UniProtKB/TrEMBL annotation:
Transferase in keyword set: yes
Domain of life: Bacteria
Protein name (record): Glycosyltransferase involved in cell wall biosynthesis
Annotated ranges, domain Glycosyltransferase 2-like: 983-1096
Keyword RNA-binding belongs to the record: no
Gene3D superfamilies membership: Glycogen Phosphorylase B, Glycosidases, Spore Coat Polysaccharide Biosynthesis Protein SpsA, Chain A
A Gene Ontology molecular function term of the record: transferase activity
Amino acid sequence: MTSTDQHDPDRKQPPLLMLGHSGLFDTEFYLANNRDLAHLGSEALLHYHLFGWREGRKPNAHFDPRWYCETHAEWLGAETDPLLHYIEHGEAAGLRPISWFDPHWYRANHDVPAGMLALAHYLFNKARGGVRPMPGFDPDFYLHAYPDIALAGLDPVEHYMTQGFREARRPFAGFDPVDYRRTHLAEADLDANPLLHYLARRDAPPAPAPPTASRTTIADEVRRTSAPGPHFETRRPLPQGVVPRALLLAYYLPQFHPCTENDAWWGEGFTEWTNLQRGLPRFAGHYQPRIPRDLGHYRLDDPAVMRRQIEMARAAGIGGFAFYFYWFDRKRLLDGPLEAFLADRSLAMPFCLMWANENWSRRWDGSEDEVLLAQHYREEDEAALVAAFVRHFDDPRYIRLHGRPLLLIYRVDVIPDARATIARWRQAFRRAGAEPLLVMAQAFDCNDPREYGLDGAIEFPPHKVARNLELINQSLDILDPALTANVHAYDAVVERALAEPPAAFPLIRTAAPSWDNDARRQGHGLVLHGSTPSRYEDWLAGLIDRAVTQPFFGTPVVAINAWNEWAEGAYLEPDQHFGSAYLNATARALLRGRAGDSPRDAAHALLLVGHDAYPSGAQRLLLALGARLRADHGVMVRFLLLGDGALRAAYEAVAPTTIAAADSPAVADLLDGLRARGLAHAVLNTSATALLAPALSARGIAHVQLVHELPGLLGAWGLLDPLRRSAACASAVIYPNPFVRQRVDAALGAAAEVLPGAPRRLLAQGLYTATRFSTTARRALRARLAIPPDAPVLIGCGHGDLRKGLDLFLQLVQLDLDRRVAGRAPVHAIWLGPIDPGLRQHLGAEIEAAVEAGQLHLPGQTEAVGEWLSAADVFALTSREDPLPTAALEAMACGLPCIAFRGTGGVAELIDAEPALGACVPVGQTAAMLRAARAAARRTQALPARQRAARGRTFAARFSFTDYADALLGLALPATRRISAAVLSFDYARYLDQRLASVFGQTHPLDEVLVLDDASTDDSVAVAEAAASAAGRRITLHRNARNSGSVFRQWHEAARRARGEWLWIAEADDAAEPEMLARLAAALDRAPAAVMAFCDSVAIDADGAVSGDGYKPYYAETVGTLLDHDGVFDGPEFVRTALAERNLVLNASAVLFRREALLAALDSCAGALATLRMAGDWRVYIELLNRPGAQLAYVAQPLNRHRRHALSVTHRLAAGAHLDEIAAIHEAVSPGAGARQEAYRRKLHQQFNGG
């Protein structure tokens, strides 16, 4: 009997049955909240009916018997059970069971099935989200805004109504309880609930003023900033072996430990942390206080701290610390951490010094007049000063550029007669055997190092970049009337910094993750307001790009202010609000050059949207999809979840994850930021996420809508209208099977009218778990459960509720118990997954009886699904509707037949089409299902284990998750080209991790990464596997048992094995800029008949040092300015113009081949390649291009790094053979060599022979 039975007008149930079947008595709740009754067990309901309500004991969290009796006294008799009254009369009359549940409003705003109590519907569905007990309270917002409630597993409504309103927590995004209480409840006590007061009076004159979200308090702001925010990220280290595009220096403050001087000047125990605690929010949205997270309030006199800092910094791509160095007339200050660092060479971090040479004053508390320790710059101290620096230069970790140590000076403007003084210092350094690069900080309007005879400058933001920048103080909602700080928009600083033209002198550019010295100046300092990790990433990435083209003494260098300037709001170390987001942004900027999410790169990024992180099928599918797209294809993935859940940490381990309600400001900010950086594609994983479709569409973000639900669920959750709106603006709507498509289309309306321009596709979700049959697991589990080998075992899986048919599953067991046949083994039934508390309450007696009989096994939620499926003989799909449940697919992948109710979903549709997969029975006929299950179980038991395993593998191959992810990627990113990368290696272990890092770092997704090892004798294979593991990427490794003897055999093997339309042959000792493939793929858009594309290269030596700016001077010797700019060329013409004399495609790693065309060319010239050892690639290019209609696309930017090894004696002895090969190619291109070709061969002959 179900909860719909209590309203049958033709029958009157006994009170206990009516109570028990209403869905309103929660036995677990009753016993848990009345521990004196714990012994009652199943007698709890009887106790409540006879005594409990009189004693004020609540039957569930949302029915208060005392409140109900007092509030509705005129409706009840003295001896009337209030819950029974509510069931029979109260809800129909609109009586509230508790002050915060409005049954009439609930029924009008939720799809409550006929005959079901509104309160029962709420109790059944509240854990899933999407339901509200009354207008004005948003449970999803509450759990997101107050993660402590979510983590504690508390009911959001009950918490707010009993405690949360007293703590001034917000019931929904637009309500300010502090302001409301101040305005409307000034005379009321703290027990007055502001939300209930507002709701009760909002429609009655005079209505209270609408609550506003614009008012905030300092306490509100502290609560906000001291909790994880929408941009919070856990650490995501760079892949091992990444070749950095630039050297990143981070300023390092050694102030976090007590010292004698600070004890005397500021009080005993003073450190920088003492300052930090004074930071407070002075205006709405002001990010204060700043609270450290992973490292806590550390002390640098603990040697373990710096080791952890270095590990963190290196993992984010920081290449060196610039330690602040304090030296005053031969006196050192704050030198302990640096001395400890020098003494421990195991601290593997390059470093340099920044001499903080200004007077030490009371600047930190705003008093600059009182000098505590002065600099006098006495000439007699100069030798000691130089010796102090040289001592650090002698450390092998000290940073040198062009062989010279890098020394930074903070305040060159305060040095008396600075130019002459610095000249004397240079002489002293030379006498000491050192010649440092002397570099000044651009601070206090001192910007040009040439005035002082210095080698260069380094930026020190906010100095210079914030000068004369417009203030935004007038637009702020001020909380501190004494505020005098200058507040600038962080975005304006970034815009100005990136717009600055190149300097006329060597300059190291610097980015600041933020700046806010409120902790030191307490409302009277300077604030760069509005920093986010993504905006900082844009700034840093832009500076890295400039550094690559404008190196500082031969090295691209960029600085960051700072690593740990906590009291100035300038730090990369993790904090409570952002987590490690700024560290991750640093890594992304370094790895991807022009900004991990820049417009160019974000064209291939993907936003994956899920409705929550609850550990269920759709959520696990989205998680697996994100992981697969990153691991297999290198797609830049970001998750947006509209609710929290137990899988949150798993999501965060895969990709940056934001959790926020669809209509929250955090989501709007996130989408605005992602779109501004070019993200243009999203996948909405379920119909529940369709709520976000209008926001995506308004920002020009195309989305693919996945539909996993059937109309019953869509209607119950109120999702038909959101899905209709999403489908109307989607780029594609994806259904798992025809059954779901037909039912949903019918529910949405006429497809042609409802879905104009939205292509609808059928794409069954793949199996994201590798579920396989195991004989060992079968035996072990059956033995553990005492199940005889011949006993039939049926299994079901899912969240045990009415939709999944748990009650029908239980009936199967009851039927078998009732129909025992002598000599026939009883059926054992296993249900995997949690059971809905309300249904458990309904079916408690039946469940207990089946468990006690030993025939029902309830292991609950488990990750070892394959073991339980292996132990079973048949899968019972008792769902009343189920689109295409993963659990059933996993069962069939484990070799199990499936018995389902006909017409209930995609699995039944599969079985009808292929009866060998199982059987379908009429809906609800459990006796027929039991008969079919027994028959199927006998067939399974008769099947040899090997055949069962093979049957499972055959089925699993039909639902390949790789194929599913690939197909979905093609639909979500339709402009992405299918490119296979093939890394060819022979004894290149030294370079392989760096090569793979540059492959994994490509901004264009890859179809696959193949590694073809040609029987290396070193540890190349192990290096490749380790590099892939460290990067979280998947490679397909092919290892030859014998060396092939020819690189072109490896080319052919790569082209044969690859599956992409395009092939990148990435030789193992070369490297590439992150955007190389993206630029080549974009060039192909202009060349529809292209058979290959290539870009210019820069040469690097064996150690990676760059030589030259590219090969254009070499090209010019043959083709003049033809290859100075991007272009599209006719293939045969390019052969005649550019390849007839010499090979201008100097490195195959710079080429993207059309794979089928390459295979044809390799086959066509296979005979010639057998005789060519040094000019074979040239011959392949000619064969490939010299066909009518063929095109070539060219990118002039040098995006490939071509490693040129020093010529060995063997190479020099092979010069004659090389000339012979060139002559052969000349003859193949144009028989009877022309004058240009002969002149080229004479030139090479002279070079080879030293002429």
